[in-house]
Amino acid sequence: VQLQASGGGLVQPGGSLRLSCVASRSISSIANMGWYRQAPGKQRELVAIISTGGITNYADPAKGRFTIARDNAKNTVSLQMNSLIPEDTAVYYCRAVTLGMEIYWGQGTLVTVSS
After folding, report:
1. Is the pLDDT of residue 10 over 90?
2. 65-76 burial: b if 16+ Cβ within 10 Å, else e
3. Residue in 64, 38, 62 with CA at minimum distance from that of residue 48
4. pLDDT, tens only, 72-100
5. pLDDT recorded at residue 100
6. DSSP secondary structure string for all residues of 31-45
7. CA 72 to CA 26: how far, in whole Å?
8. Left (φ > 0), alpha (ψ -120 to 50) or beta: where does 83 sit?
9. CA spacing 20 to 30 A to 94: which of 12, 88, 105, 106?
10. Distance between alpha carbon 59 and the CA centroid of its chain, in Å?
11. Phi, psi angle pair for 66, to nearest 5°
12. For residue 98, what are the β-bridge partners?
């Protein structure tokens, strides 16, 4: 599975961005899709994941501000990010885990929150 992430950019604190990840094939059989991020000098960390059944899980920094959604018909998973803060600055990666436990990563999209 190839994953193409997009939607990153420069946004002011308090602003919003919507990230999208398009898969090269149907995601209906992909167990989990998620977003991770890696800030400069830090390890990659979970932001949010969503199961094939739509069950979501968010890391604490994302709770109440970010929303993950998947559209199986369009082979996409999105991340709506609101109330962005400078600490959200990172490269955001899309990840897919298949039912066979194969893991695929997208190329990353940079989000910069700065005034």
Report:
1. yes
2. ebbbebebeebb
3. 62
4. 889 999 999 999 999 999 999 999 998 88
5. 86
6. EEEEEEEE-TTS--E
7. 7
8. left
9. 12
10. 12
11. -110, 150
12. 30
Lookup: tokens for 103: 């893991």
Q: Which two tokens stand for residue 3?
A: 């994953």
Q: Is 24 left (phi over 0), alpha (psi -120 to 50) or beta?
A: alpha
Alpha helices in the chain (DSSP H): none
CA-atom Rg of the chain in angstroms: 13
- Extract the tokens encoding 59: 């890391």
Cα separation values, 114 from 20, 21, 36, 44, 62, Å: 21, 24, 20, 21, 18
